[in-house]
């Protein structure tokens, strides 16, 4: 009885810790295809496809990730801070080179922030980013042509990244059949060198749970995840962040 | 025979406690390391901004040479950056620079040519970007300090901390004067 109680306490502590880390107020989850998050509905399907496709090729060649996010409200938060928090949560860019970039647009507050990861600060210093916003993006935004502004800024950024890495991303003929095909599967937890520990851990957990608690914990976890909507079916493939960080570099603009 | 068993039990207890202490000690060392490396990030960004100052002064001079007062303020802020060593000193230099900069922006309004120049607008972007980097690294530094200080204060780590001389770290508070709460006497 005592042993059961101790074990139960142990699991409660673990579960609570997980819950604490999982709650992230107001920071949206990345979209399934990762490179476009269009909450404010500023982009049509072809523009989204273009951004995703270009990024998938860029990521394969350089590990760089250029994410476009639009949000319907800043909720009174400073756009710089929000961009940083999204960047941290989504982990844009590769872990080795921190070469991510986030273009965050809040059309209702008429603000834009481009947050540059550590690894792209050389290719895109703040003044260059500021000029891209002022000269390539805001003129379109002022005419309410958001899509054109976003794509124009995106292209400028891609061009700088291409120059930095001495590569060329094929942007002219996008192969429709290649859309969304990527080696990153949804169930990535079970890939990589740590998978044996995950599996052993889960087996141990199930063993203890069913031996001492008749599977109570397992059932409650399943219930919890199904209440949260569960994950998309594992046959679809998406993208995810590479583990990159940023340190507050970049520029912001208003229109 | 009985003595040997007693020794073994004693040994086990010593090893367990020793392992526990070593673990706590190591985690303190790791946390302190994080604070220090994060502080050097803050310092880097502060230096980076100080390095922008000569360029800024030159640019403003080109259009508004006789605004000596503002220019002197900015140059002085730079030298206090160079003299600063502790987080508190840096915070003071930072506040000084921010005051000088806001005075400069007031003056700039009288010089449309300066305002419109590419050089000045680029510098503004660089300054704003550096400002934001400082804020970012400062936030991360303070988070690291908070975690370290919490661990140092908490039982039983506080015993290990006092044995090995771990002391609480200073936060980096921007504009110390503003943060200071005035004393009220009844």
List the helices and strands and how they pair.
The complex is a heterodimer of chains A (255) and B (186).
Chain A: H1 2-22, E1 36-38, H2 45-62, E2 65-70, H3 79-90, E3 100-106, E4 111-117, H4 126-142, H5 146-165, H6 195-213, H7 216-227, E5 246-254
Parallel strand pairs in A: 1-2, 2-3
Antiparallel strand pairs in A: 3-4, 4-5
Helix pairs in contact in A: 4-5
Chain B: H1 2-64, H2 68-83, H3 87-108, H4 112-116, H5 118-153, H6 157-164, H7 176-179
Question: What keyword list fits this structure?
Answer:
heterodimer, A: 255 residues, alpha/beta, Diaminopimelate Epimerase, Chain A, domain 1, 2 domains, five-stranded mixed sheet, 7 helices, B: 186 residues, mainly alpha, de novo design (two linked rop proteins), 83% helix, disordered C terminus
Structure notes:
The complex is a heterodimer of chains A (255) and B (186). Chain A has 255 residues and is α/β, with parallel strands linked by helices. Chain A folds into two domains: 36-181 and 241-254, Diaminopimelate Epimerase, Chain A, domain 1 (Roll); 188-236, no CATH class. Chain A is 47% helix and 13% strand. Chain A contains seven helices and five strands, in the order αβαβαββααααβ. Chain A has helices at 2-22, 45-62, 79-90, 126-142, 146-165, 195-213, 216-227, and strands at 36-38, 65-70, 100-106, 111-117, 246-254. Chain A has a five-stranded mixed beta sheet with strand order 1-2-3-4-5, sandwiched between helices. The N and C termini of chain A lie far apart (66 Å). Mean pLDDT of chain A is 81; it is low at 16-23, 173-191 and 229-235. In chain B, 83% of the residues lie in helices and 0% in strands. Chain B is an all-alpha fold and 186 residues long. The N and C termini of chain B lie far apart (73 Å). Residues 176-186 of chain B have low confidence and may be disordered. Chain B has helices at residues 2-64, 68-83, 87-108, 112-116, 118-153, 157-164, 176-179. In chain B, α1 (2-64) runs antiparallel to α2 and α1 (2-64) packs across α6 (157-164). Chain B has seven helices and no strands. Chain B has one domain: LemA-like domain (de novo design (two linked rop proteins)). The chains are: A alpha/beta (255), B mainly alpha (186). At the A-B interface, α4 and β5 of A face α5 of B.
């Amino acid at each position: 009885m005592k042993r059961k109680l101790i074990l139960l306490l142990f699991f409660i502590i673990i579960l609570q810790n997980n819950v604490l880390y999982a709650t992230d107020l107001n920071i949206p989850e990345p979209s399934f295809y990762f490179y476009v998050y269009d909450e404010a509905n500023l982009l049509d399907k072809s523009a989204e496809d273009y951004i995703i496709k270009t990024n998938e090729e860029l990521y394969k060649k350089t590990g760089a990730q250029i994410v476009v996010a639009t949000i319907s409200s800043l909720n009174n938060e400073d756009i710089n801070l929000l961009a940083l928090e999204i960047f941290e949560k989504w982990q844009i860019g590769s872990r080795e080179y921190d070469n991510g970039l986030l273009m965050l647009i809040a059309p209702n507050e008429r603000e834009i922030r481009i947050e540059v990861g550590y690894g792209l600060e050389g290719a895109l210093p703040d003044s260059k980013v500021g000029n891209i916003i002022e000269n390539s993006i805001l003129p379109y935004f002022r005419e309410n042509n958001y899509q054109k502004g976003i794509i124009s800024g995106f292209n400028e950024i891609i061009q700088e990244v291409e120059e930095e890495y001495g590569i060329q991303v094929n942007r002219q003929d996008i192969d429709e059949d290649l859309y969304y095909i990527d080696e990153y599967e949804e169930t990535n937890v079970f890939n990589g060198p740590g998978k044996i520990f995950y599996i052993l851990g889960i087996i141990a957990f199930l063993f203890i749970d069913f031996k001492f608690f008749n599977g109570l914990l397992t059932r409650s976890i399943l219930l919890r995840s199904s209440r949260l909507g569960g994950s998309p079916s594992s046959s679809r493939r998406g993208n995810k962040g590479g583990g990159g960080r940023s340190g507050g570099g970049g520029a912001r603009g208003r229109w | 025979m009985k003595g040997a068993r007693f020794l073994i039990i004693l040994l086990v207890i010593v090893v367990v406690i020793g392992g526990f202490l070593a673990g706590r000690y190591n985690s303190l060392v790791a946390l302190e390391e994080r604070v220090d490396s994060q502080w050097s990030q803050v310092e880097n960004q502060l230096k980076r901004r100080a390095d922008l100052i000569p360029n800024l002064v030159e640019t403003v001079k080109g259009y508004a040479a006789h605004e000596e007062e503002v220019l002197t303020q900015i140059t002085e802020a730079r030298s206090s950056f160079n003299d600063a060593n502790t987080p508190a000193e840096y915070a003071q230099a930072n506040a000084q620079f921010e005051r000088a900069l806001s005075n400069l922006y007031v003056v700039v309004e009288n010089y449309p040519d300066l305002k419109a120049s590419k050089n000045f607008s680029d510098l503004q972007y660089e300054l704003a970007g550096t400002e934001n980097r400082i804020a970012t690294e400062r936030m991360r530094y303070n988070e690291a300090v908070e975690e370290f200080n919490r661990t140092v204060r908490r039982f039983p780590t506080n015993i290990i901390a006092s044995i090995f001389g771990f002391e609480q770290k200073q936060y980096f508070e921007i504009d110390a004067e503003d943060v200071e709460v005035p004393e009220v006497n009844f």
